[in-house]
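step: validate -> pass
step: tokenize input -> pass
step: predict -> running
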Amino acid sequence: MRIVAGRHKGRRLEAPDGRVARPTADRVRQALFDILAHSDLVDMEDAVVVDAFAGTGALGLEALSRGAAQASFIELNAASLGALHANIKALGEDGRAKVIRADATKPPAAPQPCTLAFLDPPYHADLVTPCLDGLAARGWLADDALVVVEVAADETVTPPPGFRLADERERGAARLVFLIYGAA
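step: predict -> pass
step: emit ->
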């Protein structure tokens, strides 16, 4: 697994041993960031990012590589946290990355609202709505923030109150769902 583009292009990312994490595949991450680059859904330059269920941090680190100002990573699993810290250090992103050991469905109060959120919960675990509700309630999402949710291709995401569907794409075994927070 590598960073796909930007200033860290080609740099390897570590993953914990075993089946602790299911990092977003490089080709899915490439497709996701191509969609973002060619849309008006978010301005990656200077974006403030939260990567919930961060695992290795691949999504948030890819955003930093492509110009995001800062990223917060929410992760609970100890093995994933080890890999996440190692990846941040290896890329020299200690100053723009903050790791928060917490349940992504019950996050602590946000240090500041984010303009871009990535949610990559375990497939088929029904954690999307609790996470969206938790992030919204604790101030993690700015008005009009883009939330990108990755679920299994056979899963559906129904936007909870306060969110609206902007787009949805299937890429291999993954479904990418793009939601806007706080939009009328």
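step: describe -> The mean pLDDT is 93.
step: cleanup -> pass
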